Amino acid sequence: EYVNIAELFNYILDRFDMIIANDDEPKKRYTIRREIPQSQIWVELDTSKFTQVIDNLMNNAIKYSPDGGVITARLDDKQTEVVLSISDQGLGIPAADVNHVFDRFFRVDKARSRAQGGSGLGLAISKEIVERFDGRIWVESVEGQGSTFFIALPYEPYELDDEDVWDD
Ligand code: ATP
Ligand code: MG
């Protein structure tokens, strides 16, 4: 279906804001900063699959950050594609591992990751989903400083024609 990507992104992030707002003793606190312009970018994708991808990136940003971290969610209109990003101030990923985080079952630190829970499939599944929508997913990270995950999704500029205008 065609969805307004800024609206859907905000809606998914709202749930993460609500989770933290409604938890009196959260295991991990976080603040989400949004840099999401009001826009009318219509992207063809599957809402529930896309939600799964953002959920995974947000859960990773929380999981691999210290308590009280700031997570920045951005949307950039690049005309023929829209680029979404989620940045954290967390552990970061060692340079030698950065090309492997999208591999099935890959985890940077086996012991640490096992303690955190999860299976190491989240990013592999996210990559499959994003590529099914002809998009790209990648990461830039500095160990000890944080990570930014990017998703680029192609879109066709929406043009209003006669058939889109109707009377009530
Ligand atoms: P799952 O998502 O299946 O519950 P997972 O989070 O370990 O488990 P992925 O989401 O695929 O698996 O991530 C793979 C690995 O990449 C993680 O184990 C972690 O080592 C690293 N990683 C992912 N996101 C981040 C991040 N934001 N900061 C630091 N490391 C990360
Ligand atoms: Mg994960």
Automatic annotation (TrEMBL):
Q: Indicate the secretion signal residues.
A: none
Q: For the Histidine kinase domain, which residue ranges apply?
A: 1-157
Q: In which broad location class does this protein mainly occur, judging by the first location in its UniProt entry?
A: membrane
GO annotation, biological process: cellular response to phosphate starvation; regulation of DNA-templated transcription
Localization (cell) = Membrane
Entry GO MF terms? phosphoprotein phosphatase activity; phosphorelay sensor kinase activity
Instruction: Return the GO cellular component terms, semicolon-separated.
Output: plasma membrane
Q: Which UniProt keywords apply?
A: Kinase, Membrane, Phosphoprotein, Transferase, Transmembrane, Transmembrane helix, Two-component regulatory system
Task: Give yes or no: UniProt keyword 4Fe-4S.
Answer: no
Tell me which domain of life the UniProt entry assigns to the organism this sequence originates from: Bacteria
The answer to whether the entry has keyword Kinase is yes
- Write the protein's name: histidine kinase
What is the species of this protein? Weissella viridescens
Within the intact protein, the region shown is: 458 to 625 of 625
